[in-house]
Write a structure and sequence with these properties.
With 323 residues, this protein is of the alpha/beta class. It is built from 13 helices and nine strands. Strands 3-2-1-4-7-6-8 form a seven-stranded mixed sheet, with helices on both faces. Strands 5-9 form a two-stranded antiparallel ribbon.
Length: 323
């Protein structure tokens, strides 16, 4: 395959994380490789901060003829910022991507709590209409902000106030362009020209603890109105899948949800995780890739531990009430 470190003709994909999440990289990589066309070649760049553990060695040993994983170990330049909205500083590590991958002009950024169900060539080559990045609308949050359901008015008012006062989305039309940042196409050359790292650092410093979803909200605030809206099938929450419990969304989003349900290309477990919760729509697909990656036993232990922790927390709450 082409030299992945130099980009070559490969589809460039990346993520950025703490070393503790490296096992998930193998699940994502396995799903990408399983969905890739025979002619596709993918270079998966992984920026990570932390010690060289067993997970690093397992990633290094992983092989597939259509995908190469390229590890980039470096300190997270945003580690000093600390937790934002309950999210660790590793979520901000992605802002270093344009400078670290200086030899690339474009890359698909992926969170690692997802699986890929289609060849990534179309997404990699999608038109961004001259904008520095593209992403899918965040249907969950937009629906909260624009719903007219009487039983959701308190949630609606809180979400609208946050989008307006903290992030600068001052109209309903503007709110319709709030994006979910876990899947994004980045024009790296343009982002470097825009001094992306400085812009994001300034945004995080300005908004600080007001950011509810850390990197995602910072991205929306810093590039409000300058993000290309991508096909909704490239970032699908489990709730949108058959068997999901997605409520009746606002009319402006119904076509997007219908498209997601009929043909998801990336399933994103952004909230509930299949290695912690059984029975999620699409969870069986995630487990299939985890087993193929050789991590079935590892994540089964994670699931057992998570469920035991949930039971213990419920018991502790009950005991507290009885005192």
């Amino acid at each position: 395959m082409p030299n992945a470190a130099a980009g070559g003709d490969a589809i460039a994909v990346c993520t950025a994380l703490d070393a503790g999440y490296l096992p998930l990289v193998l699940v994502v990589a396995t799903s990408i490789a399983a969905s890739a066309l025979p002619s596709s070649r993918v270079a998966f760049h992984v920026l990570y901060d932390g010690p060289d553990t067993w997970a690093v060695r397992q990633v290094q040993r992983w092989r597939h003829p259509r995908l190469e994983i390229v590890l980039h170990r470096l300190p997270n330049p945003y580690a000093h910022i600390g937790t934002l909205g309950g999210y660790p500083p590793s979520t901000l590590f992605r802002f270093a991507v344009p400078q670290v991958l200086a030899e690339l002009d474009r890359v698909i950024y992926l969170d690692v709590d997802l699986i890929v169900e289609a060849d990534l060539g179309e997404l990699f080559h999608v038109s961004l209409d001259g904008k520095p990045m593209g992403a899918v609308r965040d249907i969950r949050l937009i629906d909260r902000a624009l719903t007219s359901a009487p039983d959701r008015q308190r949630l609606r008012d809180d979400t609208r106030d946050y989008l307006r006062t903290a992030l600068g989305f001052d109209t309903d039309d503007a709110m319709l362009n709030y994006v979910q940042a876990g899947v994004a196409v980045l024009d790296l050359r343009q982002l470097r020209d825009l001094d992306y790292a400085s812009r994001m650092h300034d945004t995080v410093r300005r908004l600080g603890r007001a950011l509810r979803y850390a990197d995602q909200c910072a991205t929306n605030a810093a590039f409000r109105g300058d993000i290309a809206i991508l096909d909704p099938r490239w970032n699908v929450f489990p709730e949108a899948l058959p068997g999901g419990e997605w409520p009746d969304v606002i009319p402006q989003l119904r076509a997007a949800v219908a498209a997601q349900r009929s043909g998801p290309r990336i399933i994103h477990f952004a909230y509930l995780k299949p290695w912690r919760h059984l029975g999620l729509p699409g969870g069986d697909r995630w487990w299939r890739h985890a087993r193929r990656a050789g991590l079935g036993p590892y994540y089964l232990c994670q699931l057992i531990a998570a469920r035991a922790g949930m039971r213990w927390n419920r018991l502790r709450t009950l005991l507290g009430r009885l005192r």
